[in-house]
Amino acid sequence: MIRIKSRSQIKLIEKSGRIIAELFEEVQGRIKPGTTTLQIDRWIGEFIKKRGAISAFRGYRGYPADSCISVNEEVVHGIPSNRKLKEGDIVSIDVGVKLNGYYADAARTFPVGKISLEKARLIRVTREALYEGIRQARAGNRIGDISFAIQSYVERHNYSVVKDLFGHGVGEALHEDPVIPNFGWPKTGERLRDGMVLAIEPMVNQGRDKVKVLPDGWTVVTEDGKPSAHFEHSIAIIDGEPKILTEIIDGE
Ligand code: MF3
Ligand code: CO
């Protein structure tokens, strides 16, 4: 069942989302060759704590860190470690925050130093695919309109969408109904309406769509070893329109 949120509940989710948006603005400057993913996770943990919030991920099904940090062929759910980032890597950082009982969830892929044109294009297409999906998150449309917009944009650019992991409702829990696949058909699935809060999150592979989980039980990697990117926003449908809750709009 999809939980419809009141305006005041959406305001609270937005407060959590704002923390993630500010965190992403600041973390950018810390992503450098030689930095370990654990150092980045520690910084993220401190940032969340300073803002009076807690990580929505730590302890979730036993997850052992405050963020997920996935490098190159790692798609999502990478566990921060002593792995050093190197020039040319791409690094996907996924953060969930809980404040006053309300959750927001967002992710972005960053370049480490100078990266190849191909990796830069993968990042750009994944980010744009997210915005294509968000544009469809309007009252009266259906979940499948979001899914189709993402898949068709990605495939038009000759990349593939991961089929094994999904976006989701968010707010009173980290994962709520509905499930939001990054592939599907227009005019199918649940109808969207005001008060829905959704985490839309395309995971895009440069090569084939197949993924597998490493023996650590968490890290999802591409089967063909080619790079993958991930962008996610939590959005609310207000007055029929999508409002992004995990992004700082200039002047707000
Ligand atoms: N951020 C992921 C999602 O969007 C969830 C990560 S779960 C964790 O659904 F346990 F790995 F933290
Ligand atoms: Co999510």
UniProtKB/TrEMBL annotation:
One of its GO terms (cellular component) is cytosol. Binds 2 divalent metal cations per subunit. Has a high-affinity and a low affinity metal-binding site. The true nature of the physiological cofactor is under debate. The enzyme is active with cobalt, zinc, manganese or divalent iron ions. Most likely, methionine aminopeptidases function as mononuclear Fe(2+)-metalloproteases under physiological conditions, and the catalytically relevant metal-binding site has been assigned to the histidine-containing high-affinity site. One of its GO terms (biological process) is proteolysis. This is Methionine aminopeptidase. Belongs to the peptidase M24A family. Methionine aminopeptidase type 1 subfamily. The keyword Protein biosynthesis does not apply. Residues 12-237 form the Peptidase M24 domain. GO terms for molecular function: initiator methionyl aminopeptidase activity; metal ion binding; metalloaminopeptidase activity. Keywords: Aminopeptidase, Hydrolase, Metal-binding, Protease. It holds the Pfam family Peptidase_M24. InterPro entries: Creatinase/aminopeptidase-like, Pept_M24, Pept_M24_MAP, Pept_M24A_MAP1. Its cofactor is Co(2+); Zn(2+); Mn(2+); Fe(2+). Its EC number is 3.4.11.18. The keyword Secreted does not apply. It comes from the Bacteria. Monomer. A divalent metal cation 2 binds at residues 105, 168, 201, 232. The lineage of its organism: Bacteria, Candidatus Aerophobota. SUPFAM superfamilies: Creatinase/aminopeptidase. Removes the N-terminal methionine from nascent proteins. The N-terminal methionine is often cleaved when the second residue in the primary sequence is small and uncharged (Met-Ala-, Cys, Gly, Pro, Ser, Thr, or Val). Requires deformylation of the N(alpha)-formylated initiator methionine before it can be hydrolyzed. Substrate binds at residues 77, 175. A divalent metal cation 1 binds at residues 94, 105, 232. It catalyses: Release of N-terminal amino acids, preferentially methionine, from peptides and arylamides. It is an enzyme of class 3 (hydrolase).
